[in-house]
Design brief:
With 153 residues, the chain is of the alpha+beta class. It has 5 helices and 4 strands. Helix 2 packs across helix 3 (40-58) and helix 3 (40-58) crosses helix 5. Pfam families: Cellsynth_D (PF03500).
Amino acid sequence: MQPKDIEQATLAYFMECRGQGQWSKFILILIGEMYRSAGSADAQGFLRLVGSRLHDTLGLAEQPTLEALEATLNEQWRAMDWGWVRLTLQGQGIEITHGAYPVLEASEQWTQSISAVLEGLYESLFQAQGEETRLQVRLVENLSGALVFRCAS
């Protein structure tokens, strides 16, 4: 996706969203204490596990195509006010562009935290799509309003 496309999709999403919940201060304190107590690597590992468990609760069925999976995810993200996603084949992997993701504050720690949750969620999602090889999802780029991940073995 081009930066202009990302910006337009993000603005369109925010024009329709319901806004932040009542839990933002609590979540920020919780995340901050997790990083201070456990350290960055352990906190991010825990948040990837949280993302995996979040996937388990969504009940997303296996989809026949990447386009169908993208449409299903976008319905889910809209219902949760978690933004939008574009899935694109890139060589031997999949590029995942997740825009208008939840932002509780503009900080590197928050970006790392929500990225770790999404990495765990997307790894579980693609594994549940019938992949026989173990896939890894990792953040590769932080654009204005979107996180770009690479899913590959």
